[in-house]
Amino acid sequence: MCDVKNEQRIVIKFLVKSGEKTAEIFRKLQCVFGNDCLSKSRVYEWASRFASGRESTQDDARLGAPKIVHTRQNVEHLSVLVRTDRRLTVRMMSSELGINKETIRQMLYGDLLMRKLCAKLVPKVLTVEQKELRRSICEDFLERIQSEGNDCMNSIITADESWVYQYNPETRRQSKQWIEEGGERLTKARMSRSQIKTMLICFFDIRGVVHKEFVPQGQTVTGVFDIEDKNAKNSCCTYKTSLNTII
């Protein structure tokens, strides 16, 4: 069969160099080789190759299947590779080292005792300076408690801000319903979170929320603005915060 294919490629090469149209070449091959004729797509592919200057009628060399080699040397190579870039996938390691993917997994889990984990999400990633600042503030609070007692906590008011959206889309878990056996699964349109949002600043002490205020339109929390207390006439407080300083 390989000889028949190669014979047809030689014919295609000759006819291409003779100036024949590809459609006519395919028709002639069908007349001569019948059921053994190359498919139309293969005839057009080889005709295009020969028209571009290709001379060889043989198939290109293939790399073959990845090797299945579990040796100490390959384990060391894998160790260096994965420590260079810890986000590499098993497929990428297999392609880089030329080793079967299953063997890569065996070396990762069995020899290197490694596993791939997602990053742990935390509220904030603090710098060394921010950690020192928090430690200093906590030490000051401890000193005040030791000297003044727990009553000093009553005079502390802190604040935090958060985005408030016009609406939040219903989650898949919230949309769950009980359905009888054989009942059809309900469908719902995919929704994204509201693009309309505003910043809410909330002040609270040891007893709970003291005051809350929405940031005026066009204003940022990094600026300074007056917050009027709706419950106390003619009283207001000034709130200033910096996103670069975490206390």
From TrEMBL:
GO terms for molecular function: nucleic acid binding. Signal peptide: none annotated. Gene3D superfamilies: 1.10.10.1450, Ribonuclease H-like superfamily/Ribonuclease H. Residues 8-53 form the Mos1 transposase HTH domain. This is Protein GVQW3-like. It comes from Aphis craccivora (Cowpea aphid).
